[in-house]
UniProtKB/TrEMBL annotation, chain A:
Keywords: Membrane, Transmembrane, Transmembrane helix. Residues 20-438 form the DUF112 domain. The keyword Transcription regulation does not apply. This is Tripartite tricarboxylate transporter permease. It comes from Falsigemmobacter faecalis.
UniProtKB/TrEMBL annotation, chain B:
Keywords: Membrane, Transmembrane, Transmembrane helix. Residues 10-144 form the DUF1468 domain. The keyword Endoplasmic reticulum does not apply. This is Tripartite tricarboxylate transporter TctB family protein.
Length: 502, 153
């Protein structure tokens, strides 16, 4: 059995004492920052990213995976306790989770979220291990044209799932692609858009962009109206859910895992979609749908499991094709590239230790979350009471040190300030930062593949539609675009998103 | 509130301006042909696309205005203190060294909130600096000079 020996290899890498410690630190730090109100998972990871660069590639990615799970769980914690989801995927959890908290069942809600996530994580880690290797075989057949079409599809899907206006999201993708062009042209060595600043010849620093657009912009947004932050006064209540509650959560967890695993593979933010889909399904199959919105356990258990399963399986396109499915995966790709790893089908073949180590550490990260966070909930709750004005100077200092530590380039720090301003202006203009980040990461890859495909086809642009895989991907892209722009679907999307905002 | 969606009008104009900036830069780059694309080809297409999207947003905002959402006040004080903080760190980390540069950086950032008292800010900055120096400089061993050449000692 290849699978078992591969998994064994992965676990032997991930359970080395050193890597376990890094995974633990990652989970702790991720939860610590993720639990701070108003800071979502993406911003958390962006801010903690630089810390991991000092480690060797395997450890650094394992720690990053730990940060990811921690940040996600931290997001759910704030969603449940103070109704402040940091990310759209935990927005669904906030609907019923917060109601449970108001009834004094915050402990049970948090425990069910953790246990459901753990179950979903276990199943979907296994799925990643089963499906990732055969997919790399398919991925090896991909030529430049296929890659280009796949990236177009991924970008369009990410737009479809973004909040708000489709046109605006599309504009952000294009802007991201353009920002990705800054630096030296790979084919000719011509500097582009650098305004003569040689420090930007290697391109804009990815960490600076992520920290600025997500982290600093979020701080500025929070500083707009200081003061109207709800202070948590309710008791967390009994931590362990009752037997009846466990039984009630069982079905939703199973269904959520299934929904999440399938939707997570889709490029473009499957985890968000998974949480919404699971909530809708649970509401439909429930015997008493009226409970939803009033603190239904199924409304926490289902979406949380779906969310985590989706988060996990979104590693499949990343590990096999090197295509990020969502902004968090885009951060992972950025981290891999900085570590000198080119994400794609070759990773599984050439670096099995890394590939299987990451898969195994996903499960370990999930396990640590359950072991750590349940006893530590009291501590996280107390953290929620720390006033915001104490937090952000600390975060700013960490950002500055973190960004500088990537390449010791002082110009990256000026870029952070610039991107912070850009991110804030974008949020005022209701422009989403996630498509921008995806575009920025994919920009150089897309251009390279486009140019290579055109050279290979001798300038015949029909190559994208005559090659079957590429043509299929492009047809899918058109379908997605048409569907999103249809008035009926648009209204449905708005309804889903307003439900989550309410 | 006016009857027009000012957010979207501004948004469209801003996108047009950015597209213009990139487009203007593309002029100095060789475009190449579709077979052998030069460094300017893909950026040219993207700039044009961005401009087109900007026009669509602007047009939609002027033609069929949706009501503008209520928004909080601009975070002027936040911008005035938060954004210069990393810039200051960049300007001084080599000369002053890691410890003093970080101390002042956190101090600047701390004043972004009107609620911060001076003694709290100084204390917080000192704590942050001490902690970061321990973690990044001693524990992780990053190659930062703790005190730079601008100091007389």
């Amino acid at each position: 059995m290849d699978l078992i020996s591969n998994l064994a290899l992965g676990f032997s890498v991930a359970t080395s004492l050193e890597n376990l410690v890094f995974c633990l630190i990652g989970v702790l730090l991720g939860t610590l920052i993720g639990v701070l109100p108003g800071i979502g998972a993406t911003a958390t990871i962006a801010m903690l990213l630089p810390i991991t660069f000092q480690l060797e590639p395997v450890s650094s990615l394992i720690m990053l995976a730990g940060i990811y799970y921690g940040a996600q769980y931290g997001g759910s914690t704030t969603a449940i306790l103070i109704n402040m989801p940091g990310e759209s995927s935990s927005a669904v959890t906030a609907i019923d989770g917060y109601q449970m908290a108001r009834k004094g069942q915050a402990g049970a809600a948090l425990a069910i979220a953790a246990l459901g996530s753990f179950f979903a994580g276990t199943v979907s880690t296994f799925l990643v291990a089963v499906f990732a290797p055969p997919l790399t075989v398919v991925a090896l057949k991909f030529g430049a044209a296929e890659y280009f079409s796949l990236m177009v599809l991924g970008l369009v899907m990410s737009i479809a799932l973004a909040h708000g206006s489709v046109i605006k999201a599309l504009a952000m993708v294009v802007l991201g692609l353009l920002l990705g062009m800054v630096g030296t042209d790979v084919y000719t060595g011509t500097p582009r858009f650098t305004f003569g600043i040689t420090n930007y010849a290697d391109g804009l620093n990815f960490v600076a962009l992520a920290v600025g657009v997500f982290g600093i912009a979020e701080i500025l947004r929070n500083l707009e109206n200081e003061g109207d932050r709800e202070v948590l006064t309710k008791k967390v209540g009994r931590l362990w859910p009752s037997r009846a509650q466990m039984r009630e959560a069982f079905g939703p967890v199973l269904r959520g895992t299934g929904i999440g695993s399938v939707l997570g593979i889709l490029p473009g933010g499957g985890a968000v979609l998974a949480a919404f889909a699971s909530y809708t399904v649970e509401k439909r199959v429930s015997k008493n749908p009226r409970e939803f919105g009033q603190g239904a356990i199924a409304g926490v258990a289902g979406p949380e499991s779906a969310n985590n399963a989706g988060a996990q399986t979104s590693f499949i396109p990343l590990l096999t094709l090197g295509i990020p499915a969502n902004p968090v995966m885009a951060l992972m790709i950025g981290a891999m590239i900085i570590q000198g790893i080119v994400p794609g089908p070759d990773v599984a073949v050439e670096q099995p230790r890394l590939f299987w180590g990451i898969i195994a550490s996903m499960w370990i990260g999930n396990l640590m979350l359950v072991i750590l966070n349940l006893p530590l909930i009291g501590l996280w709750v107390r953290l929620l009471q720390v006033p915001y004005f104490v937090l952000f100077p600390i975060i700013m200092a960490m950002c500055a040190v973190g960004v500088y530590s990537v390449a010791s380039n002082t110009f990256d720090l000026y870029a952070v300030a610039g991107f912070g301003l850009l991110g804030y202006v974008m949020s005022r203009l209701r422009l989403e930062p996630a498509p921008l980040l995806l575009g920025f990461v994919l920009g150089p890859l897309m251009e390279e593949n486009l140019r290579r495909a055109m050279i290979l086809a001798r300038g015949d642009a029909t190559t994208f539609v005559t090659r079957p895989i590429s043509a299929t991907l492009l047809v899918l892209t058109v379908i997605v675009l048409v569907v999103v722009l249809l008035p009926a679907v648009r209204r449905g999307r708005e309804e889903v998103f307003t439900e989550s905002d309410g | 509130m006016t009857d027009k969606n000012n957010t979207d009008i501004l948004c469209g104009l801003a996108l047009l301006a950015v597209a213009g900036l990139f487009g203007w830069q593309v002029f100095s780059l060789p475009i190449g042909t579709a077979t052998r694309m030069g460094p300017g080809y893909f950026p040219m297409v993207l700039s044009a696309l961005l401009a087109l999207l900007g026009v669509i947003i602007l047009f939609k905002a002027l033609r069929s205005p949706e009501p503008d959402e209520a928004k909080g006040p601009l975070a002027w004080r936040g911008m005035a203190f938060i954004l210069p903080a990393p810039v200051f760190f960049g300007l001084t980390v080599r000369g002053l060294g890691f410890v003093p540069a970080l101390f002042v950086t956190s101090l600047i950032a701390a004043f972004a909130s009107g609620r911060m008292k001076v003694w709290q800010a100084v204390l917080l900055a000192a704590l942050v600096t001490g902690f970061s120096t321990l973690v990044f400089s001693y524990a992780l061993g990053l190659p930062f000079r703790r005190f730079g050449p601008w100091w007389p000692f």
